[in-house]
Write a structure and sequence with these properties.
The structure holds three protein chains of three kinds. Chain A is an all-alpha fold. Chain A is 75% helix and 1% strand. The longest helix of chain A has 32 residues. Chain A is globular and about 70 Å long. In chain B, strands 1, 2, 3, 4, 5, 6, 7, 8, 9 and 10 form a ten-stranded mixed sheet that branches. The longest helix of chain B is centred in the first third of the chain and has 28 residues. In chain B, β5, α5 and β6 form a beta-alpha-beta unit. By secondary structure, chain B is of the alpha/beta class. Helices cover 40% and strands 22% of the residues of chain B. By secondary structure, chain C is an all-alpha fold. Chain C has two domains: 38 residues; 230 residues, MetI-like fold (Orthogonal Bundle), CATH 1.10.3720. Chain C is built from twelve helices and two strands; from the N terminus they run ααββαααααααααα. The chains are: A mainly alpha, B alpha/beta, C mainly alpha. At the A-C interface, α1, α3, α4, α5 and α6 of A face α1, α3, α4, α5 and α6 of C.
Chain lengths: 278, 276, 284
């Protein structure tokens, strides 16, 4: 009885501590960033090295880069996760090789990704400093997150489902689509949130791939400055850029909130079917 | 599920087609000028580029960062039309052409709360080599000195070392920083810190209320004005670098960047225009 | 089980995708080797351990203090973030009323998206002075660990949360039917069932901590030295690459890529150890 009460207390305390620190951080950003926030800030191009004007083109570039990253990595990740979970034996050499590669990929520093992305996408594939290069590099970074979480989600689906559907004569693909994926929805969603968050937060990799140009991008092949790069430039490189850096950070958080909500509702709509649990 | 797949594929296809179409049509009309290199010069170059674009239609000036060395190697390899280097060219880079656009002075800064108002050359050398470790030895509070220095390879560091006759292996810092802003914020957050940053940035931040003060060097106050009239001894050049004599829009741009027409832009970044 | 035609097509497609994922790692490795080749050719690897210090301009390339810094900061961050993250997940799954749990989860999701620059910035102007008052200079291994913990907490929390969500309801109902207390249910049934998911999440978080560049650059002090205490400023391998890459040429640049390779080896060792320690339970 005592143990129960004690652990309940500890858990509530931890949650309070964690939320406290995070609210502290967010409050800092909101307090410093709110004054400059306005409609014109959201649509106008930056002026005076970003210290006045707005961040319109930067928001557009960010959304495009994010879009490229997610559209490339989400299907690829799902496919790999399904393969690892359903079509390979867990202790097979192939499965272990892929899993280990992914864990190593998760540990590669963001700056190395930036330099690699520059060498491979910008120079070798000839894409140059572009939104496409940035998005593809981000896709590589986000891949381990999406794959591992999706795989864990699929693994956790009870084996009974698979055996029952086999007994009913369903093909593997049907089992997957109608049973396993819906059951794994919380994990898939968690992976998606993490991936989006990581992609939006990434700075070093984008400096070297999607670049520094703060003009409104005309196409995916144009260089475009992402919000995170803009915040970095304003806070660390330009004298007097602090207040706009805070405002940009606030916009980034709001953007993430909106994207997360959309992604959450879409994912729940498409993947969540009513699966009656026993 | 099928509907989702179709919708997503359609979106991707439309996006790709739009992307390709835009580049195809843009290729024929726009002349592009690419600058890469120092992140110190990048904001200035971007602003100059914007003004240049407003004066010349059909020109796009793209500025990318990556560091001074990147700027030099890109200029040499032809990956960029013009490289940006926030330092003088090294001996093995003398095959390239340089065009100085602005000057950037270096000032030693202390936290505003520090009672010390001036340090002579020898004192600074002793502090940075670890011979003086407490502020009370130079007339300040009884507190250990937090020495802030820049990372190896940076031109600010090399200039600092050269002026004080030190080698990097002699310097014993407690904190090493990368950018000027990081240096300023470190000194602001630590009342016993000493560091060195760009004069213009420090002057601006101090005028905005940041808790730092600039130390005079050999009696000469550290200010942008003194860098301009060359009385302040410590400054570095901000250079545009090309492999061959620039021609066409590259030539126009370099001339524009060195003309008095952009002096206000240079000063807005707290650098000093080169007097012509 | 024999595969139908659609299944075989699916399997082929999936195989292609998975190979692509594994290829990327190979490409990155090749890239690092290619860029460090000028250094690897001339300089025997042992010098990266035995040289007197890290002063590349003078030809000295000792990596060990930075290796230790990376190791300590990652371990510290994981040791702090793992319990906090798991507790957060337990909170939102088993202790909090649904509305509060939803809010808490959204808060954590938001925090996963805050740029490393913002964390570093906040650490530099808010956290470092506070720690500096305890023990100068303020930017130190401890500050680095704390900021890293904040950054990887969302990863652990969200993956643990998903893993707990995947525990079959039947288990929980069975435990309740047996009269287990809430903590008994959690420690005896839910956590063990979610174990592999939680470990996978912790590994991802550890990877993130090792690879974090910007934030550590701003708050850890960047002095190349073996840390004697938590308050000593240190430089991690990633911060080193970011700090010096912009101005490095020739051998210096190649040396930085060698440190990138060292990082990948470290990650490999970390991952290998983790796989050895955890014995995953699988169906079939």
């Amino acid at each position: 009885m005592v143990k129960n009460a004690l652990t309940t207390g500890v858990i509530w305390l931890t949650a309070a501590l964690v939320s406290g620190v995070f609210v502290w951080l967010l409050a800092d950003i909101i307090i410093h960033g709110l004054p400059k926030l306005s409609w014109s800030f959201l649509v106008e191009p930056p002026q005076n090295a970003g210290r006045s004007g707005g961040i319109g083109p930067i928001i557009v570039s960010t959304v495009l880069i994010l879009g490229v990253a997610m559209v490339t990595s989400a299907p690829l990740s799902l496919a790999t996760a399904v393969l690892l979970s359903e079509f390979t034996r867990h202790d097979s050499v192939y499965g272990r090789l892929v899993r280990r590669s992914l864990d190593v990929l998760a540990g590669v520093p963001s700056i190395v990704f930036g330099l690699f992305g520059n060498a491979f996408f910008c120079i070798y594939l000839g894409l140059g400093f572009s939104i496409l290069s940035g998005g593809l590099t981000l896709a590589c970074m986000v891949l381990p997150l999406l794959i591992r979480t999706a795989e864990e989600g699929l693994q956790a689906a009870p084996n009974d489902y698979r055996l029952a559907s086999a007994a009913l004569g369903m093909s593997r693909s049907a089992t997957l689509v109608h049973l396993l994926l819906p059951t794994a929805t919380p994990a898939l969603v968690a992976g998606l949130m993490l991936g989006l968050g990581r992609a939006v937060a990434e700075t070093a990799a984008l400096i070297f791939t999607s670049g520094y140009v703060d003009r409104m991008p005309g196409s995916l092949f144009d260089s475009g400055r992402a919000l995170s790069v803009h915040i970095y430039d304003l806070s660390m490189n330009v004298a007097g850029g602090d207040s706009n850096a805070y405002s940009s950070a606030l916009v980034l958080i709001l953007l993430l909130l909106i994207i997360n909500s959309i992604a959450l509702s879409l994912a729940n709509q498409w993947l969540h079917r009513s699966v009656v649990t026993v | 599920m099928k509907k989702l797949g179709i919708v997503v594929t359609l979106i991707v296809l439309i996006g790709a087609v739009w992307g390709f179409l835009r580049t195809k049509s843009d290729d024929t009309k726009i002349e592009k000028l690419v600058l890469t290199g120092s992140s110190t010069i990048a904001p200035l170059a971007a602003e100059i580029g914007k003004r240049f674009e407003s004066l010349h239609s059909n020109v796009q000036v793209d500025v990318q960062t990556g560091g001074s060395s990147r700027g030099v190697s890109d200029a040499r390899a032809g990956l960029a039309d013009i490289g940006m280097a926030s330092r003088a060219l090294k001996d093995d880079e003398k095959d390239l052409l340089k065009f100085t656009v602005a000057l950037d002075g270096i000032s030693v800064i202390l936290n505003k709360a520090n009672p010390v108002v001036a340090l002579n050359k020898q004192q600074i050398i002793d502090i940075y080599t670890g011979k003086i470790i407490n502020w009370k030895e130079v007339g300040g509070n009884d507190a250990p000195i937090t020495v802030v220095s820049k990372a190896e390879g940076r031109s600010t560091l090399e200039l600092f070392l050269h002026y004080f006759g030190l080698k990097n292996t002699d310097v014993k810092p407690q904190v090493i920083i990368g950018d000027n802003q990081q240096g300023i914020k470190t000194v602001v957050g630590n009342p016993d810190a000493i560091g060195y940053v760009s004069v213009g940035t420090a002057e601006y931040e101090a005028s905005q209320g940041a808790a730092i003060k600039l130390l005079p060097l050999e009696g000469i106050a550290a200010s942008v004005e003194n860098v301009r009239n060359r009385s302040f001894p410590l400054s570095r050049p901000l250079n545009l670098v090309t492999r061959v004599e620039p021609a066409g829009i590259a030539k126009d741009f370099v001339e524009f960047a060195r003309s008095p027409q952009v002096n206000d832009l240079i000063e807005a970044q707290y650098f000093v225009p080169v007097p012509h | 089980m024999s595969l139908s035609r659609t299944d075989r097509q699916l399997a082929a497609l999936l195989l292609g995708c998975a190979l692509l994922a594994a290829t990327i790692v190979l490409l990155i490795l090749l890239f690092l080797v290619k860029e460090s080749w000028p250094m690897l050719q001339h300089v025997p690897l042992i010098r990266f351990v035995t040289d007197a210090s890290w002063h590349p301009v003078d030809g000295l390339y000792q990596l060990t203090p930075m290796l230790s810094a990376t190791l300590y900061s990652t371990l510290g961050a994981v040791l702090l973030a793992a319990p906090l993250g798991i507790a957060s997940a337990l909170f939102s799954r088993y202790y909090a009323p649904p509305f509060l749990a939803g809010c808490y989860r959204r808060l954590i999701e938001l925090l996963a998206g805050i740029p490393s620059v913002v964390y570093g910035f906040w650490g530099l102007i808010t956290l470092a002075p506070l720690i500096g008052r305890l023990h100068p200079p303020g930017v130190s291994l401890l500050t680095g660990i704390l900021v890293l913990t904040l950054m990887i907490l969302p990863t652990v929390a969200l993956t643990a949360d998903a893993a707990l969500a995947a525990v079959p309801v039947a288990y929980l109902r069975g435990a309740a039917a047996l009269g287990l207390s809430r903590w008994g249910l959690i420690s005896g049934v839910a956590l063990p069932a979610a174990r592999s998911g939680i470990i996978a999440g912790t590994l991802l978080a550890a990877g993130r901590a090792i690879g974090e560049t910007m934030a550590v650059l701003m708050v850890a002090g960047n002095v190349v030295q073996q840390p004697q205490s938590l308050f000593d400023p240190v430089r991690t391998l990633t911060a080193n690459i970011a700090l010096e890459m912009a101005y490095a040429t020739g051998e210096h640049r190649a040396a930085l890529f060698v440190s990138g390779l060292a990082l990948m080896v470290m990650v490999l060792v970390l991952v290998g150890t983790a796989e050895l320690l955890s014995r995953k339970r699988h169906y079939g």
